[in-house]
Write a sequence for this structure.
DNA sequence: GCCGTTTTCGGCCCGACTGTTTTCAGTCG
């Protein structure tokens, strides 16, 4: 049973408990479900290694919930949940995902009309049976039908890259209004989560009506959920929900803090405030009725005794404690990047010549770029064999002799075969500056086999970097099933660099894995994986933020170093080789990044 | 049911909007 299924069971129990108006327990189950969804490790694996006891190590999972999970894993069922289902045989999870329906209304609908599914709900609404119920007069029926239509549209989360332009465009339009003083995009966009559920827009304005009108009449708006003097909620045509909040200027920082989230971060801050006999809301930090901080996030954190926490870290995964101890990391920034270690050219499936790409990299202020075209097995991408790579290396040497202000490194994106071996001969790899290895085939191997395969590649003394380690494509291809903790440990042992691939549909490593890698002392790089010159902006646009979400400092990222120092962190080449880069001593190679 | 720099009991984030139970419950984020 996987994490999502366990979380589903817990969430279902939370809803049933809420129907019975049980106090506090529903929240406990809900919190545990959230914690399990946030885990990057299979709960089943923890449980197999450490039993029920290991389950209690999961935050928000205590004695009661760990025993229920144990039963789920042992038997595939939970007797208590089955009893609940018998008592109120409704599809609560499905019904609760209808906007406006919660546990109480679901119970009412079942008690009065025996509604168990969304289909039955729709029928009853169409037949006009719902409007006869107390609590469901008049408009409720319309609202339910509309909510069902939305539900059927399937509203997945949206990759951040598909949301940013929209967010910035809405921001710009509101900023263009004369009566608007301040505008900010908050929410998971500001935290740079890889996928975005909804859009949160904040406005301080002298005449709020203008902003509300402009917002609700945008061509992107498909439906208006609610409109008030301070809060307006809409559904956009792309299926996303967007909220507009009108904020007094003196509370703008408090609102920005609140709407940036995450929810868990907010709750912890509010509880901290409570402990100090203060109250934190989106309007400010209050002692009694007196506002003591609110105009900026900085002054609120300071008043709580915390250093300013960058939005990317606000997930309640230790950042609040670190901010209290002056132990927050000094996160990597866009300007720290000096080079790019993965780019494809016309030699395989890219669109630019090597020279064009090098000039574009130079224009972006980079000092070096590695050319890493695909290799032999990837025939579809016109992968290079050894002879073709040799020809390419000669061209690179000629370009380096001619070009100023940018250094081109030789390299390749070598295929990792099914058994973990590589598709290019060792003696040629020994001549390259940067050897990246990547999975492009056999994505569906069983977990054990995939883990062995990746570890074998990582431990190969000729592999400098594991490119896009999960081989996922957001919304298209799932991550390969492998024990990534074991891969990260292997990278730490063998001195292999793990890539943070900044292609917006990859973003791979994930934020959680970056953090794990940083903690394990693994070297990382942030690459564009460019296939044209425009892609070279991806590391600064997306990659840096993913690294920051994983608590990475410049010292964790090798391409914040100048070329020679960066090369010295890669694995040493055998003595016979190393044509284009100087032989590296063991000591230089061991230099810490 | 969970949790702890006020710890093993006694709390559990806070506020907005909707509908309509004309003072509040339900839902949402």
């Amino acid at each position: 049973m996987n994490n999502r299924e366990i979380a589903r069971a817990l969430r279902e129990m939370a809803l049933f408990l809420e129907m019975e108006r049980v106090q506090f327990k529903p929240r406990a189950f809900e919190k545990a479900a959230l914690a399990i969804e946030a885990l990057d490790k299979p709960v089943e694996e923890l449980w197999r290694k450490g039993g029920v006891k290991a389950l209690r190590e999961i935050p928000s999972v205590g004695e009661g919930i760990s025993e229920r999970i144990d039963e789920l894993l042992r038997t595939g069922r939970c007797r208590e949940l089955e009893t609940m289902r018998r008592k109120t045989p409704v599809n609560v999870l499905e019904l609760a995902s209808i906007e406006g329906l919660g546990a109480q209304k679901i119970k009412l609908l079942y008690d009065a009309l025996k509604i168990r599914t969304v289909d039955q709900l729709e029928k009853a609404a169409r037949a006009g049976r719902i409007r006869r119920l107390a609590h469901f007069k008049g408009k409720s029926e319309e609202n339910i039908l509309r909510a069902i239509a939305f539900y059927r549209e399937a509203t997945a989360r949206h990759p951040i890259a598909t949301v940013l332009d929209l967010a910035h465009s809405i921001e710009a339009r509101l900023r263009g209004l004369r009566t608007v003083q301040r505008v900010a995009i908050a929410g998971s966009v500001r935290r740079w989560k890889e996928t975005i559920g909804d859009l949160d827009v904040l406005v301080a304005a002298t005449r709020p009506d203008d902003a509300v009108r402009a917002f609700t009449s945008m061509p992107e708006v498909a439906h208006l959920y609610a409109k008030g003097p301070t809060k307006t909620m809409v559904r956009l045509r792309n299926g996303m929900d967007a909220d507009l909040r009108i904020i007094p200027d003196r509370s703008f920082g408090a609102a920005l803090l609140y709407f940036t989230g995450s929810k868990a971060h907010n709750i912890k801050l509010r509880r901290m405030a409570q402990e100090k006999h203060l109250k934190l809301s989106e309007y400010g930090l209050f002692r009694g009725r007196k506002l003591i901080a609110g105009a900026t996030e900085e002054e609120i954190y300071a008043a709580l005794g915390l250093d300013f926490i960058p939005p990317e870290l606000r997930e309640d995964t230790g950042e609040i404690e670190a901010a209290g101890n002056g132990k927050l990391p000094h996160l990597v920034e866009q300007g720290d990047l000096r080079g790019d270690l993965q780019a494809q050219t016309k030699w395989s499936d890219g669109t630019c010549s090597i020279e064009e790409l090098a000039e574009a990299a130079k224009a972006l202020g980079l000092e070096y770029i590695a050319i890493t075209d695909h290799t032999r097995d990837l025939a579809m991408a016109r992968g290079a064999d050894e002879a073709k790579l040799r020809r390419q290396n000669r061209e690179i040497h000629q370009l380096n002799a001619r070009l100023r202000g940018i250094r081109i490194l030789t390299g390749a994106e070598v295929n990792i075969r099914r058994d973990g071996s590589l598709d290019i001969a060792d003696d040629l790899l020994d001549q390259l500056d940067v050897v990246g290895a990547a999975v492009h085939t056999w994505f569906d191997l069983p977990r054990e086999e995939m883990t062995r395969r990746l570890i074998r590649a990582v431990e190969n003394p000729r592999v400098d970097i594991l490119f896009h380690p999960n081989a996922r494509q957001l919304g298209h291809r799932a991550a390969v099933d492998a024990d990534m903790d074991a891969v990260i440990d292997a990278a730490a042992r063998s001195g292999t660099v793990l890539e943070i691939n900044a292609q917006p549909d990859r973003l791979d490593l994930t934020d959680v894995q970056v953090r794990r890698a940083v903690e394990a002392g693994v070297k990382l790089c942030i690459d564009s994986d460019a296939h044209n010159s425009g892609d070279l902006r991806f590391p600064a646009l997306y990659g840096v933020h993913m690294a920051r979400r994983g608590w990475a400092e410049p010292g964790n990222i090798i391409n914040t170093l100048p070329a020679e120092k960066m090369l010295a962190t890669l694995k040493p080449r055998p003595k016979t080789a190393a044509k284009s880069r100087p032989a590296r001593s063991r000591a230089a190679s061991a230099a810490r990044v």
In short: The longest strand of chain A covers residues 407-415. Residues 251-324 of chain A form a domain with the Beta Polymerase; domain 3 fold (CATH 3.30.210.10).
